[in-house]
Automatic annotation (TrEMBL):
Claim: ATP-binding is one of the keywords in the record: no
Protein's name in the database: Trehalase
Organism, as annotated: Solanum pinnatisectum (tansyleaf nightshade)
Keyword vocabulary terms for this entry: Glycosidase, Hydrolase, Signal
Protein EC: 3.2.1.28
Family statement: Belongs to the glycosyl hydrolase 37 family.
Catalytic activity of the protein: alpha,alpha-trehalose + H2O = alpha-D-glucose + beta-D-glucose
Cited Gene3D superfamilies: 1.50.10.10
Molecular function per GO: alpha,alpha-trehalase activity
InterPro entries for this protein: 6-hairpin_glycosidase_sf (IPR008928), 6hp_glycosidase-like_sf (IPR012341), Glyco_hydro_37 (IPR001661), Glyco_hydro_37_CS (IPR018232)
Length: 581
């Protein structure tokens, strides 16, 4: 007995030492989630034990809502009989879920978009091919299928739901994604604008602005469990695009204070990094950094299993933060973030200065300057014009690699830092080709530096290996992760295509049109084969949707529809060009 007590004291001491060590290793902030989310994670864990892995979707359980108050529901759950391994029988768990929880489908209800017209006046005038026009109208009609509003019962008792009670109707991505998502919404809006659905687009922006008012930043998505991370910041770009088509200055005025808050979020605290270039000049850049160090609630059982190979709680907490930060990037998951691309636990998102995030922030600063000028806020416009000039210089000093003709992610290491200022070294640029390396094209003056020519970037893209028969691959590594080869994703296709167009170079425009044709063809053929638009596509062959990652391939699909419509608006489709593969 004495030995048992001594061992117990020793174990407790070791755990305290481990916990203390964790404090020194994982220094980032943690924004706590809600008691409801914590409880639903326990239901998720019990469901996996009971139902098994086959067909299991962890997200479903944290999207459920309560029929009764939380304390009563928790009490009933704790009283469920447990069998030998601690699990609950299928009949008991089925009974509990049926009595105490509701399906997520009941929280967002269908709503007819107020500005939907089956064939809007002036719709895609450059599309001359009747077959392509018929398809485009079908894609446009999908906005009706994806339109939702928060149900009245959620607005009345929000404490019973993980869904956030947004006031305006939303466009959801589709399938398992039953709530609005941040960066998805930019390409949704591009598609809505092509279909003249201006009020729906404005409503989406107003919802996202309300999240900044409440939390200080736009959440990854409109769920309580997303409150500790954001997503690529493209809200300002949405507002600029809406203004350019509607001239709505009131929307600009109402949104500008929120944009200033969001800009501060990305340029302060843990997101901000100071780095000194080879000439000794200091630059401020930003990184993804989730405010969370536990399993992501929507994937809690998956993250726990991923981290189970790690030896202690300290390393697990670090891994959980890195996985959540990768989710903040939108690229969840990819070898881009891994030091060992065959091992997801080597994800190191917070140790990377990402090219794309800083290009998005450059565009944000340029967009804020533009919007501030519109409403007569000249000092704000001047401030953000200067901020954009500084970031442009930083992007070209830290990320540009003349030899490759690409902007490259930069890995931060403890050895190159002094007093919280990192010192740039060439060997820390990631020399692998990723689609994100070309995102700076999207900001119109990224090639204004004499040493950076659009021709060089175009040539680099063409020879990188990323350009495939059906579009641009995200990476060249086939790891089974969904943001790796052979998958191509709609937002990156559009960003690169539009970036090439903005350069004004004829060679770049020709390449942009070629990529657009490849992408439109694979979307069309896959749609005809499956009857659906898909979240991602296998770009190695025309007419194939993508796979990989931690969930089944999804259909719907918000940003895929938006990119197709935006590309058809830009390029059209001539009568004599075939659309089949």
């Amino acid at each position: 007995m004495g030995k048992a007590i001594i061992f117990m004291i020793f174990t407790m001491s070791m755990n305290m030492i481990k916990a203390e060590t964790c404090k020194s290793i994982d220094k980032g902030p943690v924004i706590p989630t809600t008691p409801l989310v914590i409880f639903l994670e326990k239901v998720q864990e019990a469901a996996l034990q009971t139902y098994g892995h086959k067909g299991f979707d962890a997200k479903l359980f944290v999207d459920m809502s309560l029929r009764e108050n939380l304390s009563e529901t928790v009490e009933a759950f704790n009283k469920l009989p447990r069998i030998v391994n601690g699990s609950v029988s299928k009949s008991d768990l089925d009974g509990f879920i049926g009595s105490y929880l509701s399906s997520p489908d009941e929280d967002l209800v269908y709503v007819e978009p107020m500005d939907f017209v089956a064939e809007p006046e002036g719709f895609l005038p450059k599309v001359k091919n009747s077959e392509v026009r018929a398809w485009a109208l079908e894609v446009h009609s999908l906005w009706k299928n994806l339109s939702r509003k928060v149900a009245d019962h959620v607005l009345e008792k929000p404490e019973l739901y993980t869904l956030l009670p947004l006031k305006n109707p939303v466009i959801i991505p589709g399938s398992r994604f039953k709530e609005v998502y941040y960066w998805d919404s930019y390409w949704v809006i591009r598609g809505l604008l092509a279909g003249k659905m201006y009020e729906t687009a404005k409503g989406i922006v107003t919802n996202l602005v309300s999240l900044i008012d409440q939390f200080g930043y736009v959440l990854n998505g409109a769920r309580a469990y997303y409150s500790n991370r954001s997503q690529p910041p493209v809200l300002a770009a949405m507002i600029v695009d809406i203004f350019n088509q509607t001239g709505d200055l009131d929307l600009v005025r109402r949104s500008l204070p929120a944009l200033l808050k969001e800009n501060h979020f990305w340029n302060s605290g843990i997101h901000k990094v100071t780095i000194q270039d080879a000439q000794g000049s200091n630059h401020s850049l930003s990184r993804y950094y989730a405010m969370w160090n536990k399993p992501r609630p929507e994937s809690s059982t998956i993250d726990s299993e991923t981290a189970s190979v790690l030896p202690n709680i300290c390393e697990k907490r670090e891994s959980y933060r890195e996985l959540a930060s990768a989710a903040e990037s939108g690229w969840d998951f990819s070898s881009r973030w891994m030091s060992n691309e065959s091992d997801l636990t080597t994800t190191s998102t917070t140790s990377i200065l990402p090219v794309d995030l800083n290009a998005f922030l450059l565009k944000m600063e340029l967009d804020i300057a533009f919007l501030a000028n519109l409403v007569g806020e000249s000092s704000t416009a001047s401030h953000f014009t200067e901020a954009a000039q500084n970031r442009q210089k930083a992007i070209n000093c830290i990320f540009w690699n003349a030899e490759m003709g690409q902007w490259l992610d930069y890995w931060l290491t403890n050895s190159d830092t002094s007093e919280d200022i990192y010192k740039w070294e060439d060997l820390h640029q990631n020399k692998k080709s990723f689609a994100s390396n070309f995102v700076p094209l999207w900001t119109e003056n990224s090639c204004s530096d004499n040493n950076i020519t659009t021709q060089k970037v175009v040539q680099s893209l063409m020879t990188s290996g990323l350009l495939q028969p059906a579009g641009i691959a995200m990476t060249l590594s086939n790891t089974g992760q969904q943001w790796d080869f052979p998958n191509g994703w709609p937002p990156l296709q559009h960003i690169i295509i539009e970036g090439l167009l903005r350069s004004g170079l004829e060679e770049a425009r020709t390449l942009a049109k070629d990529i657009a044709i490849r992408w439109l063809r694979t979307n069309y053929v896959t749609y005809k084969k499956t009857g659906a638009m898909h979240e991602k596509y296998d770009v190695t062959k025309c007419g194939a949707y993508g796979g990989g990652g931690e969930y089944m391939p999804q259909t719907g699909f918000g940003w895929s529809n938006g990119v197709v419509l935006a590309l058809l608006e830009e390029f059209g489709w001539p009568e004599d060009l075939k659309i089949d593969c």
